[in-house]
Design goal:
The protein contains nine helices and eight strands. By secondary structure, it is α/β, with parallel strands linked by helices. Strand 3, helix 3 and strand 4 form a beta-alpha-beta unit. It is globular, with a radius of gyration of 20 Å.
Length: about 375
């Protein structure tokens, strides 16, 4: 395994190519076994899953595992790309807004973001409508909020959850060799939120702060930041928060859970993300801005949390919800997505969980 400051040996050629060829060969060898197991409900990751869900989840696990062991973070572009006018470049906010945990040698940067279903011409057209700031998942090392990753998610928000518009920021991704570690992604989350409020003039009570997996971790951290510094910095609170499969304990990648075999998240992926994002912090496991499970906090914002009962993060998420509910002034609602794996809201279109996502979308629509 690599540490936060170095890539693993197989990141370099020719070792990378040899490893990838060998890994693909093992997948090809295992494919007949996966297919045979998928035919029998008792041998699937979860007995209620379909043959297609079982196979796609195993394939997703393998894809994440091979990429995570190599550990190369994609370089993001601020070009419009296939998103065209849906993509928007956003400058950092006033430097005085980045205080406390957001002050470091890492400086706020220009970011991009993708609008769904389309980029508004002005903020005034959204002033009376629900606008979602959605922070994408990907263990802090994958994703960009663009159509290929978040198209299914953006469409679900607009068509099923009642949102008029969704802005998915392309926050900086972390990587080995000290690439964009904490607090870079959290800085970018604040940049995106203040952009909606101050640049577009969208009223805060019309903004839903949302995120999935690592993005939900960022959303929680942003809520905590607004709680601690919002009054001083004149940063108002959003309408509410929606957290899908929040990654509340990134450094628990070694913890054994009953759902380890029924999810598509490999240990290598969780390790890569946690180490790249916060491996440089001596208190990463106890820092509440990195590990929300370490410390609950009071917030006036209503929060909806959804989690799959078959996902690897289920125990950690339910433990965090309990801690938050123990604070009297908090309003936290938990929806358990039956027999679902991790973050179907993001990957449901890939692993054939669309029906389960529709139920989640109904809960979100009722909540917001």
């Amino acid at each position: 395994m690599a540490n936060q400051n170095s890539h693993p040996l197989i990141s370099y050629q020719p070792f990378r190519l040899l490893f990838q060829i060998g890994y693909v060969a093992t997948v090809v060898a295992r494919l007949p076994i996966w297919m045979a197991m998928a035919l029998f409900p008792s041998l699937r990751q979860h007995p209620s899953w379909t043959v297609k869900q079982s196979l796609l989840a195993r394939g997703t696990y393998a894809w994440l595992d091979v990429g995570s062991q190599v550990g190369i973070t994609k370089t993001l572009s601020l070009e419009n790309g296939k998103e065209g006018d849906q993509f928007q470049v956003v400058n950092p906010a006033d430097s005085r807004l980045y205080k406390g945990p957001l002050e470091s040698g890492i400086k706020p940067a220009v970011i991009g973001g993708t609008w769904y279903p389309h980029r508004p011409e002005t903020g005034t057209e959204l002033a009376s409508k629900i606008v979602v700031l959605h922070l994408h998942g990907g263990a802090f090392v994958l994703g960009d909020g663009r159509i290929d990753q978040c198209g299914f998610l953006g469409k679900t928000w607009v068509e099923q959850c009642g949102a008029a518009a969704v802005f998915a920021p392309q926050y900086r991704l972390s990587g080995y060799a000290s690439l964009n570690p904490f607090p870079a992604a959290l800085q970018d989350s604040l940049t995106a939120y203040t952009f909606l409020l101050y640049e577009l003039g969208i009223p805060p009570h019309q903004v839903v702060l949302a995120g999935d997996s690592a993005g939900a971790n960022l959303a929680i951290a942003l809520l905590r930041y607004i709680k601690e510094f919002g009054r001083e910095l004149n940063i108002p609170t959003p309408r509410c928060a929606v957290l899908v499969s929040p990654w509340v304990a990134p450094f628990d990648y070694d913890r054994e859970t009953p759902n380890r075999t029924s999810d598509y998240l490999p240990r290598s992926f969780l390790y890569w993300g946690a180490q790249a994002y916060a491996g440089h912090l001596p208190d990463g496991r106890s820092n509440p801005y990195v590990t929300p499970l370490a410390e609950a906090f009071a917030t006036p914002i209503p929060i909806l949390v959804t989690v799959g009962t078959a996902e690897i993060l289920f125990d950690a998420v339910t433990a965090w919800v309990k801690k938050m509910k123990d604070i009297p002034e908090n309003s936290v609602e938990l929806y358990r997505e039956n027999a679902a794996c991790h973050d179907t809201f993001l990957v449901g279109g890939i692993i054939n969980f669309e029906e389960s996502v529709r139920v989640v979308a109904t809960k979100i629509r009722e909540f917001i």
